[in-house]
């Protein structure tokens, strides 16, 4: 189970960093669609990058993992809310749902260990 926790942390952290660094044009488009300001987008981006970094740090210092996963899960839950609010197709909802599920798994596993 420990290996699955590590793999989950890596998947969430690397994916979030990839999206916010290399696929930023998609992020801009989604936030415009959601009707959220540039300030909100910047705050969310900085927070998600920090949390992804803490998930990676958590591979060596497990004390950071639980809260990072909970907060990242909150952002993924928020993404689900906005996708449902705009009635986006399932295809657009799936990534944040998968990451939400992984964050719940990470939080539960790190809390119990």
Structure description:
The protein is mainly α and 113 residues long. It has one domain. 85% of the residues lie in helices and 0% in strands. It has helices at 2-22, 24-34, 38-57, 65-85, 90-112. Helix 3 (38-57) runs antiparallel to helix 4. The longest helix is centred in the C-terminal third of the chain and has 23 residues, at 90-112. The chain is globular and about 40 Å long. The model has no long low-confidence stretch (mean pLDDT 96).
How is this structure best summarized?
This protein has helices at 2-22, 24-34, 38-57, 65-85, 90-112. The protein contains five helices and no strands.
Features:
mainly alpha; globular
Which regions contain 5 or more consecutive residues with pLDDT less than 50? none
Number of domains: 1
Largest sheet: none
Distance between the termini: 10 Å
The helix tally amounts to 5
* Cα radius of gyration in angstroms: 14 Å
Break the fold down into its secondary structure elements and pairings.
Blueprint: H1 2-22, H2 24-34, H3 38-57, H4 65-85, H5 90-112
């Amino acid at each position: 189970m420990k290996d699955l926790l590590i793999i989950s942390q890596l998947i969430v952290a690397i994916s979030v960093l990839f999206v916010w660094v290399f696929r930023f044009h998609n992020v801009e488009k989604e936030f415009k669609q959601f009707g959220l300001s540039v300030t909100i987008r910047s705050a969310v981006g900085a927070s998600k990058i920090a949390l992804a970094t803490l998930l990676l740090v958590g591979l060596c210092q497990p004390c950071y993992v639980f809260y990072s996963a909970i907060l990242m899960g909150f952002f993924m839950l928020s993404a689900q809310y906005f996708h449902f609010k705009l009635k986006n197709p399932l295809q657009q909802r799936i990534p944040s749902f998968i990451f939400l599920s992984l964050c719940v798994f990470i939080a539960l596993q790190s809390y119990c260990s």
